């Protein structure tokens, strides 16, 4: 069980660091995606499809209105302190 907790904490730390970088303007949430990830968005929206890589997802899905990489990168995340631990 200890290994599960350590892995969970490592994931929380990694996400927290990514949000800190995003808030500082030096990174963004897309930095967390693996280069070879397959990303599927279900539904009937303009971005609903399967993307075969991080590049495909960020260039195609995130490049569409309301999900632009520039908007995400320039935005400032607001994470309540209760969610950060």
Which properties best describe this structure?
single chain; 85 residues; mainly alpha; two-stranded antiparallel sheet; 2 strands; globular
* Fraction of residues in H or I helices: 40-55%
Rg calc: 15 Å
Which spans have pLDDT < 50 for at least 5 consecutive residues?
Answer: 66-71
N/C terminus separation: 19 Å
| Major beta sheet summary | 2 strands, antiparallel
Count of DSSP H/I helices: 3
Estimated structural class: mainly alpha
In the sheet with the most strands, the strands line up as 1-2
- How many discrete structural domains? 1
Approximately how much beta-strand content do the residues carry?
A: under 5%
Q: What is the ordering of alpha helices and beta strands?
A: HEEHH
Shape: globular
How many β-strand stretches?
2
Mean pLDDT: 76
Q: How would you explain this protein's 3D organization?
A:
By secondary structure, the protein is mostly helical. The chain has one domain (2-75). The chain has helices at 2-24, 54-61, 69-74; strands at 39-40, 50-51. A two-stranded antiparallel ribbon has the order 1-2. The protein is globular, with a radius of gyration of 15 Å. The chain starts with a helix and ends in an 11-residue tail after the last helix. Mean pLDDT is 76; it is low at 66-71.
